[in-house]
Amino acid sequence: MRLKVNKALTIAGSDSGGGAGIQSDLKTFQELSVYGMSVITAVTAQNTLGVHGVYPVPLEGIEAQLDAIGHDLQPGAVKTGMLFSKEIIEAAATAVQEFGWINVVVDPVMVAKDGTVLLENNAIQAMKEHLLPLAKIVTPNRMEAEVLIGNTVTSPEDRRQAAVMLWEMGAEIVVMKGGHDENDDMSNDLVYNGSEFYELKGRRVATKNTHGTGCTFSACVTAELAIGKTPKEALLTAKQFIQAAIEYGIEAGSGHGPTNHWAYRRLSHESR
Ligand SMILES: Nc1ncnc2c1ncn2[C@@H]1O[C@H](COP(=O)(O)OP(=O)(O)OP(=O)(O)O)[C@@H](O)[C@H]1O
Ligand SMILES: Cc1ncc(COP(=O)(O)O)c(N)n1
Q1: What stretches of the chain show up as alpha helix (H) in DSSP?
Q2: Does the keyword Oxidoreductase feature in the UniProt annotation (predicted)?
Q3: Using a 6 Å cutoff on CB, does residue 13 contact ligand 1?
Q4: What angle in degrees, to the nearest 10, is found between the helix axes of 213-227 and 21-31?
């Protein structure tokens, strides 16, 4: 018997340490029973202590991966992570349009936790011009939102304003993630869909093991959209997924460790 599967694609960088990027995305897709596919934009030599090298894949190799998928395997949703350069952003945006890919989730990855640049400065404009208008959902953290709107985001009012500005740049739904907020109790994310604001609420976990939280969250949103869930349903599940992954953390490496990608599935089974 052949099962019909829901398919999702990640266009992102490889994290040799396994906690972020392509690796976190494929693990998350698998946990949600979604068939994962990947276009690798760059290889990073990375562990929990930091990024030790960044090796972009030649543009021709990226376009070949996009074409290979586009001509055969139609994804039900697509996410972008580390895109590194203006040229790679343009190639990804061209493929989305050429192949009619839907449910595009843009995680505007810019720097790693240790400060290593994962998106060149001159690529910001291309992201605004070419990618945000194609996004069903964009998921910036506070620093990424500041770079995209060109202003600081500190107060709750700034956050709402930034969400509106990003929506005006063309993303259908904006999620302002709260991982970097100065709130010891909660890590809440603010969502704006053009007509209403709502929050994804989560208890803040005191841990240094948060490597790849943003990648994992956006991968979960993507998988849920591929399954056919509404954006709101997808976001609520992603919040539960990342909460479990942080709360039931694992110890791997001696620096900023990864999250537990199987915690959500374990908890779902246990509660049945
Ligand atoms: N310590 C924490 N406790 C609970 N939730 C957290 C914590 N840190 C982050 N989160 C949640 O994880 C998700 C990712 O948010 P975050 O702001 O960390 O993204 P990010 O900076 O893009 O992540 P990264 O760059 O590490 O992949 C959000 O839902 C956020 O609220
Ligand atoms: C390939 C790749 N993609 C994304 C991130 C961001 O994750 P973090 O901010 O947790 O380092 C990363 N470090 N590496």
Answers
A1: 21-31, 59-70, 86-99, 124-126, 142-149, 156-168, 213-227, 231-247, 263-270
A2: no
A3: no
A4: 40
